[in-house]
Specification:
Largest sheet: none
Shape: rod-shaped
Low-confidence stretches: 112-133
Mean pLDDT: 90
């Protein structure tokens, strides 16, 4: 995602286009031969830019909300897996079966060399490890672990949340929580692309048009003119 400084830069470009448009509107000789430099087109471009920024922020908020809801859904996964392994340790399972369960747990925890000590989660849902696990991978590995539990006849916990039917319901909630993030992230990325097209496409984007407005004013009034000084002081940033 873009940084907050970048977002300020995009918004400032839009605001400065409005300032530039208001400035050239006051110039009696301003009558460019290129349509996209004319005042009505500049005004329309500003409106489109502002509308697109609003769409980006709407999708950004939706994306953040989906990510937060996924974090909430997954917050009990690693502790639950630790409890499952602790229970399996006392069931007298074969070494191969127990090792398989512990391997799946390590994948979910994101642990590298310390299988019994979960690492603290980072912002991407994985621990500090040699292989950071995505939420989707964690859910998949949890499903495999539950499939393994289903083959163990004496896996009969007394705790309701560790009983297999409830664990399966929990796993489905994890899968369901990842899907809105994928959708929201995709929609957010589309709006970022659309915004960048309006602002920064070569020749037709806001940034290049603003530069061409300045060039036209310079050709019209001269580089030493107060008119050019006024417009040249209005700054634009290319892809902040």
């Amino acid at each position: 995602m873009m940084s907050s400084n970048s977002e300020v830069g995009h918004a400032k470009n839009a605001a400065n286009l409005q300032k530039l448009t208001e400035q050239v509107t006051a110039f009696t000789l301003y009558n460019p031969p290129v349509d996209q430099l004319k005042v009505p087109q500049l005004q329309a471009l500003h409106s489109s830019a502002v509308a697109k920024l609003a769409e980006v922020e709407e999708k950004r908020t939706a994306n953040k909300t989906a990510i937060y809801q996924r974090q909430v859904a997954f917050q009990n996964l690693k502790p639950t897996c630790t409890r499952i392994i602790n229970l399996l340790n006392i069931l007298g399972l074969s070494k191969g079966l127990l090792d398989q369960a512990k391997s799946l747990n390590r994948s979910i925890q994101g642990s590298s060399n310390k299988p019994t000590t979960p690492n603290p989660p980072d912002g991407n849902g994985g621990g500090i490890s040699t292989s950071r696990q995505s939420y989707t991978q964690q859910a998949e590995n949890f499903g495999i672990l539950l499939g393994l539990l289903a083959t163990i006849p004496n896996y009969t916990p007394n705790e309701d949340d560790l009983k297999l039917p409830n664990l399966l319901t929990f796993k489905e909630s994890l899968v369901s929580a990842t899907q809105p993030v994928d959708k929201a992230t995709g929609e957010f990325n589309v709006k970022i692309t659309e915004r960048d097209a309006i602002f920064y496409t070569e020749e037709t984007g806001l940034y290049d048009i603003a530069q061409n407005v300045k060039k036209y004013v310079k050709s019209l009034y001269g580089g030493d003119s107060p008119q050019y000084s006024n417009v040249s002081s209005i700054k634009f940033t290319n892809r902040p």
